[in-house]
Amino acid sequence: MNSPGNAEKKDIKGFTWVESLDEDDVDFNALKTIECDCPDFIIPFTHKKIDGRMEFTYNLNGLAKMRHFSGMKSKDEYLDMWNGIINPIIECEDWFMEPSSFLFDIDKIYIEQRGNKTSYKYIYIPNMNSSFSNDDLKAFLAEIENMYSTDSSELSHSVLRAITAREFNITEYKKIINNFRYGKNTGADTAVPVSAARIQEEIEYNNNAGAAEAVRKEKEKDEITVKIKNKKEDADEIVIKTKQKGEKNKNKGKGLFGGVFAKKNDHDKEFADGAFAESSDDGNSYDPAPVNHFQSVPEEFEDDGMTEIFEEKEIRAQAVLKLVGKKDFPESISLDFSGKDAFSIGRFDGKSGIKQSDFEFEGKIKSISRRQAVIEKAYDSYAIICIGSAKIYVNGKSLSRGETMRITTGDKISFGTIGADYIFST
Question: Residues 199, 205: contact at Cβ < 8 Å?
Fold first, then answer.
């Protein structure tokens, strides 16, 4: 997870993400351009000055985390996903934006569903002192590749080989994606499929090569050379000065990346986990750092044989769905958020026999998707996200795949129209 320069999380409440920067670090060129013409690949934000700092507030209402939709994709869905992820990194310079100012955190990539259109959205923090290395970008893309799979083994192999390449180039990666999209000869059509062992061997080789490269860079701190593909010319070689602590970025708008993929400085900070951390809806739980839900009774008295000693008790707020529909369904669904901030609901998959959701209806209930919904918790706020092909309803209003709605005590949640109706309460 990258931390754009000196950006600091100030507060996270409900469905809002807040960041703050020293006013001197704010990239006002990018900020003014975004204000006039906000690109659809970033989450709109408001900003205000407070005691010499600039505070940015991002509204996450109506957005769903990309992580909830991990798993197997068709070839077209897989290509759409990658275009949604890499296009902003390449195109952002049109808004005087820097790739290093994107929050490259897999838990902070959101999707917005409007009809049949799915948009991928980043949190962008306009920081002129941000830094982000090419290796960091590769690690981010590799994490996404690990979350998603496709029914095209040829495409999957090409993506993995590109991400693990010794000299990763995002414009070349974009070219690979486009070649698969438009049916051009990728050079891989006649290639022998790569075995898992061969891929692992290449990854290990790259790791060793990366260690040697780190030693070389330590000796050459003054500059690094990055080769990029230009739209008009075959190749440009750009020498980028490595930024030192406090140095302003002087390459704004020059070249594809303007020197932002410089060496990460020691003073860079990591963000805390986002407004919501959640379990992966592919059945493999994603557990953030656990929150202390325990409250101890002060030991004010020694045991004199007469004084009662109270044992430490676990105190947890429990949310629940209570059945108000047909009696064929479970009477209640306890929403256990222990150690995580999301709870998934779906239908048991009898074919695979693998549990894919935290709670699963019986496999015979075909009108409920195997991965139907996720309920997220942030402080005392809750939201439900439809992640399945079947619809869910909140107080009679339908939610299709990718749509989100906040819920409070007393709301009626229906999984389809088969009588699986529940009242939400905390």
Answer: no
Compute and round to an integer the Cα radius of gyration of the chain. Answer: 24
Tell me the sheet residues that pair with 16: 13, 59
Side chain identity, residue 105: D
CATH 3.40.50.300 corresponds to the domain 294-425 = no
Place of tokens 């991002």: 58
Sheet holding 110-114, edge to edge: 64-65, 110-114, 117-121
Backbone phi, then psi, for 170, in 5-degree steps?
Answer: -70, -30
pLDDT in tens, 363-386: 888 889 989 999 998 888 899 999
Task: Evaluate whether 404 touches 64 at the Cβ level (below 8 Å).
Answer: yes
- Are 78 and 148 spatial neighbours (Cβ–Cβ below 8 Å)? yes
Distance CA 192, CA 365 (A): 42
CB-CB neighbours of 354 under 10 Å = 10
Please check whether residue 160 is in contact with residue 146, taking contact to mean a CB–CB distance below 8 angstroms.
no
Tokens 């993995």 -> residue: 160
pLDDT in tens, 134-177: 889 999 999 999 999 898 889 999 999 999 888 899 999 999 99
What would the two tokens of residue 43 be?
Answer: 């989450």
Residues 416, 399 contacting (CB under 8 angstroms): no
The two structure tokens encoding residue 54: 């600039």
Listed in order, strand segments (DSSP E) in 122-222 are 148-150
